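To close the chapter, one final illustration. This time we ask the reader to focus less on the individual chains and more on the assembly as a whole: which components sit near each other, and how the overall shape emerges from the parts.
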Amino acid sequence: MNKILKTNLIVLGSFAVALAVNPAKAYAACETNYGGGQTCTFNKRFDIDKDVRIEGDNEWNDKVTGVKKDEVVEFRIKIENTGEISVDNMEMKDFLPDELTKISGDLTEGWDDFEPGEEKEFKIKVVVDPKEFDKENFEKCVVNKAVVKFDGDEEGSDTATVCYGDLEVTELPKTGPESTLILTVLGGLLMAAGSVLKKVVA
Amino acid sequence: MTWLIYTITTLLVILVLAFQLIRPQPAPQVKAQTSVKSPFELLNKKMYFPPVRVFTAEKNIDVKLARVDVGADGALQTPSRWDTGGWFVKSAKAGEGGNTIINAHYDTNNGAPAAFWELKSLKEGDKVFLLDEMGRFFDYKVARVFYIDINDPNRLDILEDGDKNGAVLTLITCGGVWDAVAGNYSKRVVVQASRI
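The assembled structure is written out below.
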């Protein structure tokens, strides 16, 4: 048996043993090197996107405001395998703030065989704790975070914000200019130019 | 020759099976069950969605909508862009019973016309349309155009929910005289329209 074949067999054997000992690891893409040995690229990458909407709405956003008592709020967590390898031992963990009460969905999900390009979607429905509305004339925002883990290590996270309260409108909207600085400066310049012209003519 | 017989037989079997599948079946006898709700009944439940665009037939108003809420100072927020309107998230959705409230800027910091510059020229009977997130149009007819003073004690009445059985659209922008010291217009132009 020649040397190159022996080396290759040893490398492949070691790789097989490593996989058998720790099956949770991602499968790396390996290439045989010229002259013996292998180069394995361990290229894993995940995208996580968390959105929120009030039940009944069509659009998903990063933030919802004006959530009322007993109104159902939906979170959507999308995780995509944007790497080049299939992975096992994936986990999604959602950190629900104390102010929100879960009514459906799971805060922790685990799965295997996550193929490149594959996307997982999880939905969690919550309501704001009714006790939160005992206060008067208030608005409060809470942030809900979700993380994606591979083999126990955090690989990414995203947040969505829920604002609720009973703030009432006490003033009409200010629908005019927000600043008239430009007009004031222009007016001043015109006045200055006018007085200069007046002096020149005189 | 044998293969030809096999092919023809197979095609005949497929044709007979296909005919069995597509021929009209006799209606099954169903006992009346009044207590069970049809799925179509559930689908018929009216659903409303936030408006994403407001436009008029007669006047030059065609404005995309963002969402606005109550600001920390208690004022109804205005949209961050001059060319965009703001739908109040706590008001009725497009076509829904109650009061759908939309406001937009009248002019910009440079004095140029903003999204609702032409609101003042709407007249009673003019048509206003709302487009919702699902691409559905809702038609409204202007019932009233009026000015309200920013210090009028009843000024907030225009933001009230109104009758849930009737869909009302309230459009608001600035009007009256610009008060440079207060940084505010003295009045608001209010257009109230009813769904037709």
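Chain B has a mean pLDDT of 84. Chain B touches chain A through 47 residues (CB under 8 Å). With these observations in hand, you are ready for the problems at the end of the chapter.
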